[in-house]
Predict the 3D structure of the following.
Amino acid sequence: MSLDNLRNQSFPLKSKEDWKEKAEKTLKGKSVDSLKSSTYEKIILKPLYSQQDQKNVPDYPGGSDFRRGVHLLGYVTNNWKVAQRISYQTVEELKEKLLDSVEKGQTALSFEVSDALFKSKKTLIEILGDLPAASPFAVNGKGLQSAILEVLAEQEETADQFTGYVGNDPISLFAEEGFISEDFLNGWIEDVKKVNEKLPKLQTVLINTSTYHQGGANAVQELGIAAATGSFYLQQLLDNGMELEDILNKMIFQFSIGSNFFMELAKLRAARILWNKITQIYGADSKNRGMQIAAETSLFTKTIYDPHVNILRAGNEAFAAVVGGVQYLHVTPFDYETGSSKLAERIARNTQNILKEEAYLQKVIDPAGGSWYVEALTKELAEKAWQYFQQIEAKGGILEVLKSDWLQNEISSVLTKRENDIYTRKQSIVGSNVYANLAEAAAQVREQTSDNYFNVDLTNTIKIKKMKSTRLSESFENLRKISGKIESKSGSKPQIGMICLGELKQYKPRLDFMRGFLAAGGIESIESGSISSLEIAKQFVLSQETKYFCLCGSNEQYESLGHEILSTLNTVFPDRIFYLAGLPEKDLQTKWTNEGIKQFIHINSNCYEILSTILTEMEVALDEVTKA
């Protein structure tokens, strides 16, 4: 075929019905509707989005509701800032790291705050040197914001050089600490007003939803909380005499970006829609209605075991953040939870450099714009988030829903659903609840310091339910800790014997399943090899120190050989505990349990509960032997 003929070729037109017919053939009779899925936001995702799902959206970024971004040409003219948050032990280390990171691609001054920054009045200024003249700040000052702003405000000759943000969100701190202090909140409002004129280019009002994200909140909740907190601060500052334009120019929103790529980028787009609507109600000019966003890749999704997978997780999350249109971005180092190494910090920073220089995301204006799926998801997310915001306001606003524990309980219920999906392995965490490496030893989790929070008189506070900060993998990591304790006491990993019935091809599928299932809890599978008779099974059980065993084989082997072997083993070894890999038909289950099966382990089993029970029993039994 000639090149001209090839160019003139075209695919025949196909309708949605043609696709549906073909899909249902592949599904072997199941309806296409069976491919629909529900998210934690209670949004139903369709298997296919088409032109019929097209939504009316702005023709270009920087206009209308700002869903497509706040700048007309996106990152082409206003690149996002690489704001890697620097951790350190000494102020000397911080100074060295700041200089080094700026030379290697960092474009914003971002660092963790601590009391060490205030050894003297000159400490912070000496650390920063000339860097603020060329790079904006990207700092969550937390309880030390006031001290940082005081130092910066004293530099009258260079005050105009300070750009970016040194912000604080008192309400998110209240949620973290478990109390509300009206005195602290009022003092913070005064600080914001005080530095408004002294530091005119510095943003100081931070709305930080990462606290709630870390507690397990879904995207709708994060957006509703952001809107409620932002509108609360806006109203408070207006009531205290600040001008609307000044307030809006002082505000910046911080979001954590989770693992659901499309949901997370749609979250950022929906956030701008909500804030545009709120500021429009207040009568703000369009030039002041664009939301400024600082994002960070999620800690909630990161793991201690197999930490290099965190590089992939953070890369996916960073990609979503950039496509979603952020102004500042921090990528979490892959070993952050155990103390960030230089290699991890370098990889995290270079993740952003790769997105800029090799993925060319700085050269594409709103790459997600116009996608039928993204636009439909953005619209539905914005609508649900607006309803959630109204729900918070109807209950008295963000402070009141925290005081009543309503918000904490709402987020806790979502966390419970997430955890249940992890426990049952409906959602996978590579290296934790699936594909766990038994040979791997996890590093010690670093202690979290609290010297960067605030000191208040607790007698003048209102106690609230503390927002739980967690990671999804923690439950399985705790199982591995129990396994490690058992190993240190007994000299070997906790073990379960695999009674493999029949030939390799008959038992291997379920044996492989059980290996992965048990490894998630740090339990080793000891294989019997092919068992074809009762006598071989007895010898295997006798040769093992463990009292836990699991039958593995095909359904045919279970019926022809399994019942006989199990009945006898249960009689001869009454202290042994037996499991069965797989789930027999209902009418057969009673027979198996009567013959001695304690539990059926299958694809829908609650992996965490089963492993937790086994490990707890093993630990108790070991302690009793040790005491004896």
In short: The longest helix spans residues 372-394. The chain has two domains: 65-411, 476-627. The two ends are 85 Å apart (CA to CA).
